[in-house]
Specification:
D-amino Acid Aminotransferase, Chain A, domain 1, 31% strand
Length: 229
């Protein structure tokens, strides 16, 4: 379980929940598995305008609470346009990894597979390999969790339910993505994710809750390169 940790009443004081560091990943009960994203971890506080006279607001705070909204104005506009609610607090990453050739996340849902459900937005395995150049890629926001919607905190809602809500909350596009995730067995997905350049995967207990600013033993990171542990 996540460590006992006081939760600030002001969502602006929330910081990302993280996997507890470990040289040897701990077993995770009933895991959800997603690629380990690189980039800047942020909490996005988003509110749509209530009228034509009131503009929407999107504030991006990094894992230290610093306001980084001004660094990606196009992403901020894209998040506002993508949100299918009046307001939300989202956990995610600012990263160019989502827009590199070879790592596009499809906007099509994944079908059921022989009793195991591959959930979320799928990552294509048959796309062209990454280009061998140094051309800059646009940064996108990749959402991995939703913590609050329309004024209602979701911290006590199981992760799997939050993931399902997140899938229906955002209209994904070039600059706004939802991280793909799956359930075991995951071997085929591991190969695709590693080929796309991801350095590992994150395993999260499907029933885990969210404690802002805490480390939890219910999440663990498994790196493809053992030296990263």
């Amino acid at each position: 379980m996540a460590d006992s940790h006081p939760i600030p009443s002001d969502p602006r004081a929330w910081r990302p929940q993280t996997a507890r560091p470990s040289r040897r990943p701990r077993p995770v009960v009933d895991p959800i598995i997603e690629p380990h994203w690189g980039g800047l971890r942020v909490i996005a506080h988003v509110a749509r305008g209530t009228s034509s006279d009131e503009a929407g607001r999107c504030v991006l705070l990094d894992d230290l609470g610093e306001d980084v909204t001004h660094e990606e104005p196009e992403v901020v506009e894209a998040i506002l346009a993508a949100l299918g609610a009046e307001d939300a607090v989202l956990d995610g990453y600012l990263t160019d990894q989502a827009t590199r050739p070879g790592t596009q996340v499809s906007m099509l849902p994944v079908a059921r597979r022989s009793g195991n459900i591959v959930m979320g937005h799928r990552m294509d395995a048959d796309i062209a390999p990454p280009l061998e150049d140094d051309a800059p890629r646009p940064v996108a926001f990749v959402a991995v969790d939703v913590l609050r919607v329309d004024g209602q905190d979701l911290l006590e809602i199981p992760l799997l339910e939050r993931k399902r809500l997140l899938d229906s909350l955002l209209e994904v596009g070039e600059l706004v993505r939802v991280s793909p995730y799956t359930r075991p067995p995951v071997d085929a997905w591991l190969r695709s994710w590693r080929a796309a350049g991801f350095d590992g995967v994150v395993l999260k207990a499907a029933n885990s809750r969210y404690r802002p600013g805490s480390e939890t033993v219910e999440w663990t990171i498994s790196f493809a390169n053992p030296e990263r542990r």
